[in-house]
Amino acid sequence: MLVTLFDDEFLSTVESLVRKHHTIYPRLPPQGLFLEALVEQGFILSKWPRDQVVPTTPNSPQHDLLVGTTRLSVKSETGKVTRVDKISITKLCTTEKGDWNAPALVAHTLAHVARYDKILMLRAIWETDFFQYQLLDIPVSLLSQMTQARYKKVGTRKGRRSLAGEVMDGKKRLFRVHFDGADGKCQIHDLLVNRCEMLRQWRQPIV
């Protein structure tokens, strides 16, 4: 039997859990370990057996949850600069070890991304009196297109310089890849929301 990972029951449960989170933290969207635990409970409460929803060691360089046989990464974007149509991933992975050149950094990042089957992202867009929530499935295959970018040194930092490149679809930019020379992180900027699967949207009042 084909099992849909992000079915309506799971999505409704996650929305309900986020709303309950706001009864305690009215102005703080869930993120990090709190969000991972919330998503874990979302699967369990939507009738996944507990032994089929297995969290990994926190902050380890692998998937966050194993749901059945699916390796799931859980990410969030909840800052006040979050935009409705473009996604930022501040830490796709850390690349501070090894050679600091574009081919090596891209290969390291793709090896990391290959550890995921699915990437689930919760986004909170701050409006005047409510959060506009988005729950998205970011295709792993989309991020893998970073091999197509042309990378160059950016910034004025002394020592190890940052590298950046743009992933294009014809004349349209899909996203920008940034390898930060200061902290070794691979970041994704301006990833188009409409190239991802929008699973659910809702409004949460800010009180």
Structure description:
- The chain is of the alpha+beta class and 207 residues long.
- The protein is built from four helices and eleven strands; from the N terminus they run ααββββαββαβββββ.
- A six-stranded mixed sheet has the order 1-2-3-5-6-11.
- α1 packs across α2.
- The longest helix is centred in the N-terminal third of the chain and has 17 residues, at 8-24.
- The termini are far apart.
| Mass-distribution shape | globular
Which structural class matches the secondary elements? alpha+beta
Q: What is the string of SSEs from the N terminus onward?
A: HHEEEEHEEHEEEEE
Q: Please count the beta strands (DSSP E, at least 2 residues each).
A: 11
What's the arrangement of secondary structure elements?
Blueprint: H1 8-24, H2 32-45, E1 53-55, E2 65-67, E3 70-77, E4 86-94, H3 102-113, E5 118-126, E6 130-138, H4 140-143, E7 151-154, E8 162-169, E9 172-179, E10 185-192, E11 197-205
Helix pairs in contact: 1-2
List keywords for this structure.
alpha+beta, five-stranded antiparallel β-sheet, six-stranded mixed β-sheet, globular, 207 residues, 38% strand
How would you briefly describe this protein structure?
The chain is 23% helix and 38% strand. With 207 residues, it is an alpha+beta fold.
